[in-house]
Design brief:
The chain is an alpha+beta fold. Helix content is 24%, strand content 30%. The strands form four sheets. A five-stranded mixed β-sheet has the order 1-8-7-4-5. The protein has a four-stranded antiparallel β-sheet with strand order 11-12-14-13. A three-stranded antiparallel β-sheet has the order 2-3-6, with no helix packed on it. Helix 3 (170-184) packs across helix 4. The longest helix has 16 residues, at 141-156.
Length: 292
C-alpha cells in the first residue's frame, strides 16, 4: 500500500501533466496537494492514474470521511471543511493511499493561488507578497510569468491584447468603488465593482485585459482576443472569473475581460469538467450579496 506525506505547495500541481490510466484500472496517486481556499475550507487536488469515474476519498486524522470526488481526465478536486491550523488528511483511490498535510492560516490563505475572494469571502486590506511590475502593472510572480506566455501565444495567433489592470491596493479599490456608487448608486455599482477588501485585484492574481477594438466592456467577448482567451486562457492557468450565466453565483455581471490566475492544473480541470466558477468547483455558497 502506497503511503506518502506531502506538504502543501502553492504551485504544487501546476507543472504536473495529465497521466494515462493503467490498463488494469490499478490506481496510482501521482501527486496531491492541500490548498486553502477560504477561512474554513481547504481543497485537495489529486493527480491520479486510474480510469475516469473512480472515486477519490479523503479522511481526516480520526479516519472520518470528509470528502469525495470522481476522477476526470486523471484529476480530482475534493473540497474539505477545515478548522484551521495544521491539518492532516489521507487520500485514497482504490488500493492507493497518500497522506497530505496543510498549514491553514491567514498567511497560507493570502498566498494561495486558489483563494476565493468574493462578496462572501474577503481578502482584507493587506498586500500580497512577491509582486512584480509588468507594463506598469503589478502582479504576483506566478501570474506575471503566465501572463507573459499567454500574451505571446495570443500575438502569434493574431489575437493580441494589452494589460489594463492588475494588482489594486485596498485604498485604490475604495476610491474606485466609491466613485461608481456616486455615479450609479450602490445596487448598480455592486453588480460590476467590488467593495474594498472584496476585490480579486487585491490578490495580485487578477487581470483586466483589453484590445484596440474593445476596452473593458462586454463587446470584448466578440473580439479576436476575447474569443482566443475563451478557448486558450486555461492552457496558461487563467480562467474567465465572471462567466456569462453565472451572475447569481459570482455576484457580478459577465466580464469577459476579467481573468483570474489559478494555475494550469486547476484551470484545465475546470474547463474539462465544465465547471464555470470557483464557487461551484469548491462547493461554496453562491455569492450574489455581501455578508451582513
Amino acid at each position: 500500500m502506497k503511503k506518502l506525506v506531502v506538504s502543501v505547495a502553492a504551485v504544487a500541481l501546476t507543472a504536473v501533466g495529465v497521466p494515462q490510466a493503467h490498463a488494469d484500472d490499478r490506481a496510482e496517486i501521482v501527486h496531491v496537494a492541500a490548498i486553502p481556499v477560504t477561512t474554513d475550507k481547504v481543497v485537495i487536488g489529486v493527480q491520479v492514474l486510474v480510469a475516469d469515474g473512480a472515486e477519490v476519498s479523503v479522511t481526516d486524522a480520526t479516519g472520518r470521511t470528509v470528502g469525495t470526488a470522481a476522477v476526470t481526465d486523471g484529476k480530482a478536486v475534493v473540497p474539505v471543511a477545515s478548522k484551521g491550523g495544521e491539518q492532516r488528511y489521507v487520500v485514497t483511490v482504490g488500493d492507493a493511499r497518500t497522506g497530505v498535510r496543510v498549514r491553514h492560516d491567514e498567511s497560507s490563505l493570502r498566498s494561495s493561488p486558489w483563494a476565493v475572494v468574493n462578496k462572501q469571502h474577503a481578502f482584507g486590506a493587506k498586500a500580497p507578497t512577491e509582486l512584480q511590475k509588468l507594463d506598469g502593472v503589478d502582479l504576483t510572480k506566478a501570474a506575471h510569468a503566465a501572463y507573459g506566455r499567454m500574451l505571446r501565444g495570443a500575438q502569434q495567433a493574431g489575437a493580441g491584447f494589452w494589460l489594463a489592470s492588475g494588482y489594486r491596493p485596498f485604498a485604490d479599490q475604495r476610491v474606485l468603488y466609491d466613485g461608481y456608487v456616486k455615479r450609479d448608486g450602490v445596487k448598480r455599482a455592486d453588480a460590476y465593482s467590488a467593495r474594498p477588501g472584496h476585490s480579486e485585484h487585491q490578490t495580485g492574481l487578477a487581470i483586466d485585459v483589453a484590445s484596440e477594438v474593445c476596452t473593458v466592456s462586454k463587446c470584448f467577448a466578440d473580439t479576436p482576443a476575447g474569443r482566443w482567451l475563451a478557448e486558450h486562457a486555461a492552457e496558461y492557468g487563467f480562467i474567465i472569473r465572471y462567466p456569462k450565466g453565472a451572475e447569481k453565483v459570482t455576484g457580478y455581471d459577465f466580464e469577459p475581460w476579467h481573468l483570474r490566475y489559478v494555475g494550469p492544473w486547476l484551470a484545465g480541470h475546470l474547463k474539462q469538467t465544465k465547471q464555470p466558477t470557483m464557487e461551484k468547483a469548491f462547493g461554496l455558497r453562491e455569492a450574489p450579496t455581501y455578508v451582513r
